[in-house]
Write a structure and sequence with these properties.
Length: 251
Amino acid sequence: MARKWYDSQVVRVEEIGPETRHFWLQLPAPEPGEDPFQFRPGQFITMDLPIAEKRLQRWRSYSIASPPGEDGVLELCIVKLDGGLASEYLFNTVQPGSIIRFKGPGGTFTLPPALEREIVMICTGTGVAPFRSMLLDLVQHAQEHAGVHLIFGTRYRSGILYAEEFTQLMETLPGFRYSVALSREDLPGELAFPFPVQQGYVHQIYTEQYATVSPNRVFYLCGWQNMVDEAVERLLALGYDQQQIITELYG
């Protein structure tokens, strides 16, 4: 059987964008008769951080950004929130060698076994983490799909996460598309990006490209609640069914 709580060791920390860091956690080796930690792409772990006395004030959940099967190492992508107790601890105290206690995996924000419908992934900021796990898992298993479009939004080009990886996926994962919306970047007429970029918000991209409703399409939304709520409202207004919209909130 699997244990409920794990004591992982931070083996690497890397800054990848403005107030955004990667954390790599090494899982403990399974004890005799114990199942190894397993998760499905899109799931999250819940950390118990030493930042408060009450249990629920210490718990913070973060999506796993790495695919399953990476040598017992979990990768997380975390943004720093001003005044956040967890952020202060993770960004100012945690370093390689630190021990982080967590439980999991949790969540149902996962892809179905058979990808028979077109998938549109819409996210902002570190909401891209579960999608990265899903996409890398698709590549590892060479899984057939009906098309995947990742639409990522952030304020400035410095906040585009995993740009090189997703650019490479456009060449190595058949049927994959990648689009970026920059809400506060002034884009000159000729700006060299290896993927489509437009000024504005993610909503402009999917409402333009998916205005024609299809029952063979499903939307996965991950990000701040305001973005997700607006996306759900817009998709329903276009005529999509609620069952075609799957959401995950953070923050």
